[in-house]
Request: fold
Amino acid sequence: MSFGQFLLVAVLALPASGAVAAALVPGDRAGRLVGTVAAGLTLLATLPLVGGDHGWFGYGPRPGVQPWHRLDLPWVPGLNLRFHLGVDGISWPLVVLTALLTLLCCGYTLWRVPGGGGSGRALVALLLVVEVGILGTFLALDLVLFFLFFEVVLLPMYAVIAGWGGDDRRRAARKFALYTLFGSVLLLVGVYVVVAAAGTADLVTLTGGAGLPRGTQLAAFTLLALAFAVKSPLWPLHSWLPDAHTQAPTVGSVILAGVLLKMGTYGLIRVAVGVAPEGARWAAPALGVLAVAAILVGGLVCLAQDELKRLIAYSSVGHMGFVLLGVATLTATGLQAALIGNIAHGVITGLLFFLAGAVKDRTRTGALAELSGLRETAPRLAGLLGFAAIASLGLPGLAGFWGEAFAVVAAVRRGGGLWTTLAVLAALGGALAAAYFLRLLRRVTHGRPSPAVAGVAPGLAGAEVTAWAPLVLLALAVGLVPALVLSYTSGPVGALLGVVTK
Reply:
């Protein structure tokens, strides 16, 4: 076994064993500490997975035809299924982001365990199981294995919301589970259609269509796209998201927004577009229209929101709309915009939910009308909230700018009346994002302190600074040097488009 293959196994084995150890170690704090150590080791194992000849910070194209590292072992020989893992420039940034956010969330529980009656070590164990499912989804190169890892996330995330969430947590958890199960059924049928027609579940072989008939590709793409739209979530299949975010504990919201939603958009690019390119070309105009609808609807709903976490949750609908718009263009610029938009959204929205949780913990409310004057009593917290908000609205120089701006550019370059119109409407949606985030800051940070805010202490806990600082630095780094992401994705994107657009 090569070092790269060992790392692929370790990336999954470390959080899995950490979850078991956290659940079994005597003592609640000891269990949380063991789980956090396992999450830290997982992050360390993901970093050397980067491949190519350009080193860690190479700015040239990366090889895209084959994964940098691959593990391919017999799994179910009678069904021709294999335990096939691999990583390339499309999946590696998401793998690292998943490991980082999980570590920050596990470390955060060492300082504060959310209420709800569950033990802290059980929460950490569940977060690590969620991490296994998400990482496996990003690493799987067998379609059936992809489906299984995709499903691993459902029950532990349900338990996180139902066990440690807010007052209405059980209803929100049920809604999350029902929507996800609906998407799972569609995904399972789509996987069956592809595997039965192609005779293989190998994603490397299937990429480009593998000779699948046009009708099969149209049916498969429709099923797969709908399944991934539920998970992302994309409008109009998004209604589970605000309730889940509002009721989930802070660490649950961070994982949910930061990386769990990316399973859907990653699957759309890697599986739906890659396996059924004719279906993607056929559905591209409809995807573009739905993407812009998500951007506009999400922005308008945010303007009317009066609850902090709900506003941030609905903003994700709009941001995922920009990702979908980039994918729908089926251009190199659009796919690059979608991939960097995924990373930026994970970093910035993860930070926003950390900050929203801190505000709610201090004030015992998330109502915008009760949160005025935060900068007068807690200027550091208000400043960080302002930074995260302007990063999310797409200010140039911060991470949120590149994905949204170049999704619009990709639509313009696609040409034609429809795509130009969609680009203009998407740009207007970006202006809506500026409007609702500035409204958020005016309501929460400006004015005279409300009774709920008046008693807030000005300082930040060391655990909060430790959890938030990496996200602040990443938002700056990716915004100033987007090649930190794009240099790794350019080669695989070129290879993908080479086989799906021929």
User: Anything to note?
Assistant: The longest helix spans residues 332-363. Confidence is low (pLDDT under 50) at residues 53-65. The CA atoms of residues 292 and 422 lie 6 Å apart.
